[in-house]
Design goal:
The structure is a single chain. This protein is α+β, with helices and mostly antiparallel strands. It is built from three helices and seven strands, in the order αβββββββαα. The protein is elongated, with a radius of gyration of 27 Å. The two termini are about 40 Å apart. Keywords: Cytoplasm. It holds the Pfam family CS. One of its GO terms (biological process) is protein folding.
Length: about 190
């Protein structure tokens, strides 16, 4: 559970954001995240090959760096990852350097990480603005629920019945057809 942050003045908020940015920029690696994964990037000399690196990805910890040197990143992860779905690659970049790109697949795909490793400074996860997701990214049940909500919202905006209201109307209409002897002129649906 995230700590409750008291309301800050705009100046205090700006100072907190600046401090957080400076702390993150001072790290010997860069990291980004989505709700489902974390990506960590380390810069290394361009002459290195994969065999010159040590990258250990475990369910609750990570260590990565150049063989024979202190790791560039090492520590406990704030939350568990799927080791089998986590990877690393060595990529050449312009300027004669290379990057080690580490992809961590989060076990809990419903929480933001305050830091890549627990020993690093935290970010304020309440300030994260998630990227827009596509309906195709969702599993079948969730997608169906979201599509129904979107349909119902459009229907309300048009002054039309929602899917649930339409079901009730259809059932009522069928009942009326089965019972023509009854007078439904004063009937109200709730």
């Amino acid at each position: 559970m995230a700590d409750k942050v008291p309301d800050l003045s705009p100046a205090e908020e700006a100072a907190a954001r600046a401090k957080e940015k400076a702390e993150q920029e001072a790290l010997p690696y860069k990291w980004t995240q989505t709700i489902s994964d974390v990506d960590i990037t380390l810069s290394v000399p361009g002459s290195l090959k994969g065999r010159d690196l040590v990258v250990e990805i475990k369910k609750h910890s990570i260590a990565a760096g150049i063989k024979g040197q202190e790791p560039i990143i090492k520590g406990d992860l704030p939350h568990a990852i799927h080791v089998d779905d986590s990877t690393w690659t060595l990529t050449a970049v312009p300027g004669g350097t290379k990057t080690v790109e580490i992809h961590l697949d989060k076990v809990n795909k419903m929480e933001w990480w305050p830091h890549a490793v627990t020993s690093a400074p935290k970010i304020d996860v309440t300030k994260i603005v998630p990227e827009n997701s596509k309906l195709s990214d969702l599993d079948g049940e969730t997608r169906g629920m979201v599509e129904k909500m979107m349909y119902d919202q459009r229907q309300k905006e048009l002054g039309q019945p929602t899917s649930d209201e339409q079901k009730k109307l259809d059932i009522f209409k069928k009942f009326q057809e089965q019972h023509p002897e009854m007078d439904f002129s004063n009937a109200k649906l709730n």
